[in-house]
Write a structure and sequence with these properties.
The complex is a heterodimer of chains A (253) and B (423). Chain A is an all-alpha fold and 253 residues long. Chain A is built from twelve helices and no strands. In chain A, helix 2 runs parallel beside helix 5, helix 3 packs across helix 6 and helix 3 packs antiparallel against helix 8. The longest helix of chain B is centred in the first third of the chain and has 48 residues. In chain B, helix 2 packs across helix 14 and helix 7 packs across helix 8. In chain B, the strands form three sheets. In chain B, strands 6-7-8-3-9-10 form a six-stranded mixed sheet, sandwiched between helices. In chain B, strands 2-1-4-5 form a four-stranded antiparallel sheet, with helices on one face. Chain B has a four-stranded antiparallel sheet with strand order 12-13-11-14. The chains are: A mainly alpha (253), B alpha/beta (423). Chains A and B meet through helix 1, helix 4, helix 7, helix 8 and helix 9 of A and helix 2, helix 5, strand 6 and helix 6 of B.
Chain lengths: 253, 423
């Protein structure tokens, strides 16, 4: 399918401009990761060199779990607002009468929610690992500075964020109230945390091969989610509140 | 919540309880509960959407009821000027397509038709938004689309602008069939200004226009934006946030946005709704400027004075199309010609006086004390009436051709629809 990157970029730029004009979005984007990074840093700094390796591994696992919570939770509310928010402020109808396709519109919206989230997640990951290298005990530093953990963060952060965004967008495209959409969006993004949870519980170890395989799986799911959400994006339902397919069936034509 | 919503929720809760009591491994619990939570979220979300549909349909039904009642109640045309066939009879004849009048001569599709609509119908479930609508719009004309609230005007615009799929019938917009396969091509050739301008209030005027120019894939949009802002006289406010603009100025930004892509057809949905007279006049001047440039304007409005001033032709819709044509033609088809006579004192024997004039078919006294004479040809009848009045010793104050506004045409047609609907 031919997508116009000019149109996708137009949507992204508009979204970024709106973020900049609404400082609460930026503040909330910064506050949550700050908490999720500061708490484990304090916890890891308190671990001495004499601590048993199993305890250290558990603490580091929880820390990385918290870091992967950031790309899952952060974009959920933004994505949940993406479609219904446009409808709520009366901008959806003029937008949908332009030549933009639903795939382009949704891709622009999702990239605009994913990119800053991933940026924030990477920055805080970097801050954490550097802080640990400089200030934590050598046992902790050794446990954190593993290539597999870096690879997991590098690959999983964007893919988990994308999953969270598509779930939020799907709810946004089908919901009737902004508040409900945002609450459901956050709630429905949580299952994506299963992956980092399993990693932190040491159910499987994030070796480089495992990380790449899971990342490929997540990428396939994300692309499929884009297509599914695009199919769910029904212009008629969004504008009139009624689905063309359902209504035609009910009318018996 | 809908019945399906309750059922899905009950099943999901049953599964969750079963899992929590049956599964012992903590990881399994977490996985299972997560899936159930996701399932519940989606189920609830779908239930919410269904509720919204019901609410919208109810709201539209309420609008329809009100408008019909309103239309019937406000018929004010004096019956004495109707001649042998009352406007209501004429209107009913048009509505039922069985009388002496037909819309066909005024609405033949020609080679310069840019919108062609044939038997188009849109139903939302059992509710009919509009039904069996056929008309065409010529290139470069301002076409008025009139009707009461809930008549289906906005749904027609949404259908023609590819937002809503018709239930049956066919249409062409800018020469492209409205069949679901060419939606983007159609949207590249049209522009729609909705009743609410739909601007991003945190962005400036220029930023709004840059965004929409991007949606039309224009790489260097600044010259277009400058032209559009100049056209709506907003160049000086280009950097103002849309949130800081008055309603009239926002409406103008909406118009500038509609002009960005140099569209062949502009759909304007109530463009002057809520504007003060000066702002309305500016919008009307813009519409005239668009016409001068050869742009086709499809104008839906409640304001009949505005339609009368701006439109080359009008269509009156009340779920079904009541009529379509030039306003003057509609007047002639709806009402017989008449002459209004006012005298200083009442005539002693008006019946004898007017009956003696060949060109006067009938007469009646109106509420102001004047006389309304139904005639076949005003140019022949007026001198004859003047001579008869002078010969009869009457002190004539005025003698004028009877004029019927578009409002009278509209009210008769919509009133007839109301009556037809009751039958």
């Amino acid at each position: 399918m031919n997508q116009s990157w000019i149109r996708i970029r137009a949507v992204m730029r508009k979204e970024f401009r709106e973020y900049r004009r609404n400082r609460f979005i930026i503040y909330t984007m910064g506050t949550l990761p700050l908490i999720f990074t500061a708490l484990p840093v304090i916890s890891l700094f308190s671990i001495s060199s004499a601590t048993p390796p199993s305890v250290v591994r558990t603490q580091v696992g929880i820390t990385l779990l918290l870091l992967l919570v950031i790309p899952v939770v952060l974009p959920a509310t933004i994505a949940a607002y993406s479609v219904i928010g446009e409808r709520d402020q009366g901008t959806l109808e003029p937008l949908l009468t332009t030549p933009i396709s639903r795939e382009e519109f949704l891709l622009g919206k999702s990239l605009a929610a994913t990119i800053p989230t991933v940026g924030v997640a990477y920055v805080f990951f970097l801050v954490l690992v550097v802080a640990i290298r400089l200030g934590a005990s050598s046992v902790v530093a050794h446990a954190v500075w593993q290539p597999s953990w870096f690879l997991a963060e590098l690959l999983f952060a964007p893919l988990l964020a994308a999953w969270s965004v598509w779930v939020g967008t799907a709810i946004s495209a089908r919901s009737s109230d902004v508040r409900v959409a945002q609450q459901l969006g956050t709630l429905a993004s949580l299952p994506a945390l299963v992956l980092p949870l399993l990693m932190s519980l040491q159910v499987f170890k994030p070796t480089a091969t495992v990380a790449v395989v899971i990342a490929v799986g997540l990428a396939v799911i994300d692309v499929a989610a884009w297509r599914v959400v695009s199919k769910m994006f029904d212009r008629e339902r969004l504008i009139t509140g009624a689905s063309a397919v359902t209504m035609r069936a009910e009318a018996g034509t | 919540m809908t019945r399906q919503g309750w059922l899905i929720t009950a099943v999901a809760l049953g599964c969750a309880i079963g899992a929590l009591t049956g599964v012992k491994k903590p990881v399994g619990d977490i996985l299972f509960v997560s899936v159930i939570v996701l399932y519940l979220a989606v189920a609830y979300s779908l239930g919410g959407a269904k509720r919204q549909v019901d609410a919208k349909v109810r709201e539209s039904d309420a609008d329809d009821d009100h408008s019909l009642e309103d239309g019937v109640a406000r018929v004010t045309v004096p019956p004495e000027i109707y001649g042998s066939q009352t406007p209501r009879e004429i209107a009913n004849a048009i509505v039922t397509r069985s009388g002496n009048f037909s819309t066909a001569p005024q609405d033949e599709v020609t080679s310069d038709s840019v919108i062609v609509v044939e038997h188009l119908t849109k139903q939302f479930g059992q509710r009919v938004a509009f039904e069996d609508v056929s008309f065409h719009v010529r290139r470069g004309e301002v076409f008025g689309f009139l009707g009461p609230n809930g008549a289906g005007k906005t749904t027609t615009v949404r259908t023609l602008s590819t937002l809503v799929t018709p239930t049956s019938g066919s249409a062409e917009v800018a020469g492209i069939p409205l069949d679901g396969g060419h939606d983007i091509e159609i949207r590249q050739r049209i522009a729609v200004m909705t009743e609410v301008p739909g601007l991003y209030l945190r962005l400036s005027v220029t930023e709004n226009l840059v965004f929409f120019a991007g949606l039309y894939s224009y790489r260097d949009a600044q010259p277009r934006i400058d032209r559009a802002l100049e056209a709506v006289n907003l160049s000086s406010r280009a950097n103002d946030l849309c949130g800081s603009l008055s309603k009239g100025l926002r409406q103008r930004v909406g118009l500038a946005r509609a002009l960005l892509s140099d569209p062949e057809i502009v759909f304007l949905d109530e463009p002057t709704a809520g504007l003060d007279p000066v702002a309305s006049l500016e919008v009307q001047n813009l519409i005239n400027a668009l016409r001068a440039k050869g742009v086709t304007v499809f104008l839906t409005t409640h304001r009949l004075d505005e339609a009368e001033k701006l439109c080359d032709r009008v269509a009156i819709l009340n779920t079904t199309l009541r009529t379509v044509g030039r306003i003057d033609d509609l007047r002639q088809r709806m009402f017989h010609k008449s002459i209004l006579v006012t005298t200083v004192d009442p005539l002693p024997d008006p019946d004898r006086l007017f009956s003696a004039i060949d060109d006067v078919a009938s007469w009646t006294k109106d509420v102001t004390g004047g006389y309304v004479l139904v005639v076949s040809d005003v140019r022949v009848a007026a001198p004859a009436i003047t001579r008869a009045l002078v010969a009869g010793g009457a002190d004539v104050l005025s003698l004028a051709e009877g004029h019927h506004s578009l409002e009278e045409v509209y009210l008769e047609l919509v009133g007839a629809a109301g009556q037809g609907g009751e039958q």
